[in-house]
Structure formats: C-alpha cells, structure tokens
Amino acid sequence: MNAQFRSFVMQWPVYVPVVAAVDLALTWGQSLSAGLVVLVGCGLAGAVLSAVHHAEVIAHRVGEPFGSLVLALAVTVIEVALIVTLMADGGDKSSTLARDTVFAAVMITCNGIVGLCLLVGSLRRRVAVFNPEGTGAAFGAVATLAGLSLVLPTFTTTTPGPRFSPPQLVFAALAALVVYGLFVATQTVRHRDYFLPVTTEGEVIDTDDHAEPPSARAALGSLGLLFVALVAVVGLAKVVSPTIESAVSAAGLPASIVGVVIALMVLLPESIAAVRAARGDRVQTSLNLALGSAMASIGLTIPAVAVASVWLDGPLLLGLGATHMVLLTLTVVVGTLTVIPGRATPLQGGVHLSLLGAYIVLAVSP
C-alpha cells in the first residue's frame, strides 16, 4: 500500500493540471464565496507548480535555449488571451489594462526575476556568470520594444492622450513582431551558443551530458499537460480577477494594481523555473527565461491588442506616466551596466530588486 501511495504521489504532475482544469470548469462564471476563493487558489498554485515541472521536462528534451522559449511563449500567448478577454469585458475602464500588465511584466522580469536570480546565483557561487553577448542582445531588444510601445505614445500629438493613432499603432505592432522574430531567430538558429548556460568557471554547459533526456513521447505528454496547466493558471486567474478588483477597490488602491496582480500570477511559473536554474549554476537559463518573457509579453501583446482594438470599445491607452518612465529609464541604465561585464555580485541583484520594490510601492501609493 505504501509503495502504491508513493507511486500515486509521484504522479502528481499528471493529475494536478487535470484537477485544476476541472476546478476551472466548475468555477467559470461563478460568483466566488470565501470557500471557492480558497479552492481556486489551491488549484492555481497546483497548476503553477505542475507547469514548472512540465516546462523543465520539455527543456531537458529540447535543450537550451529552446526550453526557455517554450515556456515564455506558452505563458505569453495565454496571457494575451487573458488581457484581451478582460478588455472585452471591461469597456472604457480597461483601456489601460494592456499597458499596466505589459509594464508590470517588464518590471517583474527585468528587475524581480533577474535580480532574484542574480542574488541566488551569486550567493551560492560568489559570483553569477552569464553570457553578455546573448543577454545584452535580449535586453537591448526589450528596451527597444518597451520604448517604442510604452514611451512614445505619451509624446505623440496626432491623437490626444497617451495613445497612438491607427497608423502609429500599426507600426508599433509590426515593429514588435519583427524585433521579436529577429530575436527568436538569433536565439535558436544563428547564435544559439550565446544563450547557453555558463558555469562560474566559464565553461558552457551541455545539458545533454548530465542525464538521459526524456523520450519524445514523454516530452509530448508534458507539452500537452503544460498547455492544460497554463490554461488553468490563466483561467483561474480570470475567475478570481473580479474578487481581486473588488478587493483593490475596497482598499482604495489604484486600478493599475489589477495589472500588477495579473502579471505576478501569470509569471509565477517562469519565476520558479528561473530561480531553480540559478540555484543550479545556470544563471544564463534564468536570464533567458526572464528577458524572453519580457520580450514575448511586449512582442505578442501589443500586436494582439492592436488587432483587438478594431472591435473593442473604448480607447487603447499605451503611454506611461512620468513616474513609470523614470523607473523604466533606471531599469534600462542599471540593466545595461549589469549585463556588460557578464558577471554579477549580490550588489547587482539587490539593486534590481530595489527597483522592483520602488515600482510596487509607487503602484500602491502613486
């Protein structure tokens, strides 16, 4: 009996996504009581953990940097679906949801995940080592996309308010797609070696040498279960979002906090996977996950909401305010100085985390 129980427990990554999907089906469209909120929270946590497990299985099968790309793309595609759905339901009051969520994703990934992973990696190995060529290329693309999509709308004059005119929005969407496509081609084809993990001794880690990779059948099974888990994560996040909005309103907090909470929930699987990689002396994998997620968030969300704005009611406000532009500028400057040496100490990790802390404090109390 004990052996059977242990075998059952070991299979949790298989049945947890299914249970979370059932949880989603039972609570979709329901008004949540306190008990249902707890049920949804448990399902959300289980789906996040199982998503991380299956993403790691796929990453082990396909190797880096493809594994990081799979998780970033999967999470972002479903994040886009969540944003568009909430915008369709929210009308004018959700006109800034895409901006708030994308900017929150940029700050969480470029400061939160990056800072935490640099801190974890450097505390365990005295110094966190990564490839400055690949990391610098990724960070430069993130900074460019953030500037084009989130800063320029504040200063354009064709349309009143911090938003693009239709031709400007088309350009921003196409630019986002082109830059993201170029990055994916660089990461996976032309300069794949720039994105491989590097040990503290400067040796490139060949992930195929450590353990036997899972079979193609197991990897395909994990891919399907990863999709189910991510659908459950975003679906349950949507189910609980009215409760979050009510709590934010009751607490007298700014509406932009909703975008922060959405980004935190959606990015949780990648955050856990990134920290695990940093603990295993694979800081480059952590940075691939963080910056890849930031880039995918902008590169896919902006084109998607540009298309959705054709039928959505209300304006699409993308331009950041002065406070957030200052934080973005600091993030770009500090991130550039962090990337250039290819090595980081706990100081760099702490600086990035302090920027995330400033963002959260100012989001709560503008």
Write the layout of secondary structure elements.
Blueprint (H helix, E strand, L loop, with lengths): L1 H9 L1 H16 L6 H29 L3 H25 L6 H29 L2 E2 L2 H20 L14 H25 L25 H35 L6 H23 L3 H26 L13 H18 L3 E2 L1 H19 L2
Antiparallel strand pairs: 1-2
Helix pairs in contact: 2-3, 2-8, 3-4, 3-8, 3-9, 4-8, 4-9, 4-10, 5-6, 5-9, 5-10, 5-12, 6-7, 6-10, 6-11, 7-10, 8-9, 9-10, 11-12
Second rung of CATH, namely the architecture: Up-down Bundle
Number of domains: 1
* SSE order, one letter for each helix or strand: HHHHHEHHHHHHEH
- Share of β-strand residues: under 5%
Oligomer: single chain
Order of neighbouring strands in the sheet with most strands: 1-2
- Biggest sheet character: 2 strands, antiparallel
Distance from N terminus to C terminus (CA atoms, Å) equals 57 Å
Low-confidence stretches: none
Total helical segments:
12
Helix content: over 70%
* CA gyration radius, whole angstroms: 20 Å
Shape by Cα distribution = globular
Report the mean per-residue pLDDT as an integer: 82
Backbone structural class: mainly alpha
Q: Which fold name fills CATH's third level, the topology?
A: A middle domain of Talin 1
Per CATH, the class reads Mainly Alpha
Name of the CATH homologous superfamily: NCX, central ion-binding region
Explain what you see.
The chain has 366 residues and is mostly helical. It has helices spanning 2-10, 12-27, 34-62, 66-90, 97-125, 132-151, 166-190, 216-250, 257-279, 283-308, 322-339, 346-364; strands spanning 128-129, 343-344. The chain has a single domain, classed as A middle domain of Talin 1 (Up-down Bundle), CATH 1.20.1420.30. It has 12 helices and 2 strands; from the N terminus they run αααααβααααααβα. The chain is globular. The mean pLDDT is 82.
